[in-house]
Structures are given as structure tokens and as C-alpha cells.
Specification:
By secondary structure, this protein is α+β, with helices and mostly antiparallel strands. The protein is 24% helix and 26% strand.
Length: 113
């Protein structure tokens, strides 16, 4: 057995497909709905990936009114505009986005515990 017959293991990146920029046909843009644990029982729901032509402030206003919670729009240098809501509103937000016709159900990714 020579030196060339030995295979060295390569590193595997499980998130490579999520970070790859697929600009080809069939590439989907997902809306990511996440929940983040704050202190104690408090949590924060973030909505990222909405198209830029939508008015984030109007969507936020409707979300706050429907779910009786507070929220804000945050400008992130990497992610762009992100909507933040108080509490665990993942199911409510995904149902609202589908019902309002902003995004299709198959283009929503719900993350969290």
C-alpha cells in the first residue's frame, strides 16, 4: 500500500447547503421564524427574510394588533431588516403570513425549541 492509497477524511459542513447562494432556477427564498430565549420564561420571536417591497412597519403594526404583543423592526448589517415580537409567536406569525398572502406555507421555516 502506497501513500496515494490512503484517504484522508474531509470535514463535513451540515450548514453548507443553507449558506450556499443558489442563483439557479428553482432557488427558494425562505422566511425564517425563530424564537430566542431571554431571561426566565421570557422569549423573543424574530421574522427574517421577507421581501424588501413589503412595508415592515405595516406588517409589524398588524402583528402587534392581532397578537396583543409589542414588537420592533431592527436593522441588522448581515440579515437586513428583522421583525422582533415579544413572546413565542411562531405559529401565529406563520399563520398570519400565509393568510395575508405575503408568503406561501412551503416557504416558511420555523426554528426553535
Amino acid at each position: 500500500m502506497s501513500e496515494h492509497d490512503i484517504q484522508t477524511p474531509t470535514t463535513f459542513d451540515p450548514f453548507a447547503d443553507a449558506t450556499a447562494d443558489d442563483s439557479g432556477a428553482g432557488a427558494k427564498e425562505y422566511v425564517h421564524v425563530r424564537v430566542q430565549q431571554r431571561n426566565g420564561r421570557k422569549s423573543l420571536t424574530t421574522v427574517q427574510g421577507l421581501r424588501k417591497e413589503y412595508s415592515y412597519n405595516k406588517i409589524l403594526k398588524d402583528l402587534k394588533k392581532d397578537f396583543c404583543c409589542n414588537g420592533t423592526v431592527v436593522q441588522d448589517p448581515e440579515l437586513g431588516k428583522v421583525i422582533q415580537l415579544q413572546g413565542d409567536q411562531r405559529k401565529n406569525v406563520s399563520a398570519f403570513l400565509v393568510q395575508a398572502g405575503i408568503v406561501k406555507k412551503e416557504n416558511i421555516k420555523i426554528h426553535g425549541f
